[in-house]
Amino acid sequence: MPYWRLSSYYFFYFASLGALVPYWGLYLQGEGFDALAIGLLMAILSATKVVAPMVWGHIVDRTGHRMQVVRLGALLSVFGFATVFVADGFWSMALALLLFSFFWNASLPQMEAVTFNHLRERPTRYALVRLWGSVGFVLVVVALGLLLERDSLAIVPLWILSLTLGICLTAFLIPDSAPDSGSRVDVSLRLLLRRPSVLAFFGACFLMQLSHGIYYAFYSIHLESAGYSSAEVGWLWALGVIAEVLVFLVMPRLLERFGARRVLLWSLALAVARWLAIGAFVDILAVQLVAQILHAATFGTFHASAIHLVHQVFSGRTQGRGQALYNSLSFGAGGAAGSLIGGVLWAGSGPLITFGVGSVSAALGLFVAWRWMDAEMRHP
Question: Which CATH superfamily does the domain covering 3-173+188-378 fall into?
Fold first, then answer.
């Protein structure tokens, strides 16, 4: 298995997220965009995850050329992001982000499938590859936070462009791998999507990422308005991802001992508490530290267990579209919905109500997963 080449892709991909997610909203605010405009622009980054993964996933499952799609998407995302530097105003910025994110979001679901195909009979070890993405996120979010103490927000797009170029370069180093259908008989995508447990799984993922969409779009703005410095904002983001890295190290044992469904349920339950803590107690640093440590559960264990379930259910010629559906419905549709809801609520209702909606969304996801995700999902 090309461990370090796979890990380097995740490193640069999530390092670019470390520049984009915490600081892009602040950059847009510095460029004069209001809360609603920021919510809409951040929603574009998520909305393209609804369409792009499904388009490219369909192509891959028909052609089998998975890494070619990853490389093409990575290359075009570099050129797409370069258009940000000539954007002037809301509509040109929206178009630039649309071009960038359509190709940027196309490659990750296929990269996940490539990684699992290389892992073969050791799928629970996915987290040990993926953790390097979290390391990249931590390094960038801290370094950029420290730099923004003395430099202007204009450096943010430069960092994102450089890291996107790193994604492109590493994508060309990774060998392709044949789909791993194992001993399972392929089932059509249509039949898989008729299973109540599969629908419940995707519903829970959508609701969980809706709550995260609010967090990603407005957490940094929430902290800065409460008096936190750029460096403190960076360290709080980094703490969450450090906790995520640590939980990835033990994730294989958690999955083997408790099963993916149970881990998923606990992740949703802890998300309910996390969003309430962020919305209600922003002035208490100790509470924010605990809330960020809970990122290990709300993202780390949730994503690792979810991606494990996707790999179990979707195999063979449905593998690419299964990974694409997970990204489209959760990070795409869910994340976009969260950004939009946050943009609408933030100015008029305030942080407590906005993050409270995120908590309610996670609670609904918990109920859906507990009620309808059964043994059919765990052992398809």
Answer: MFS general substrate transporter like domains (1.20.1250.20)
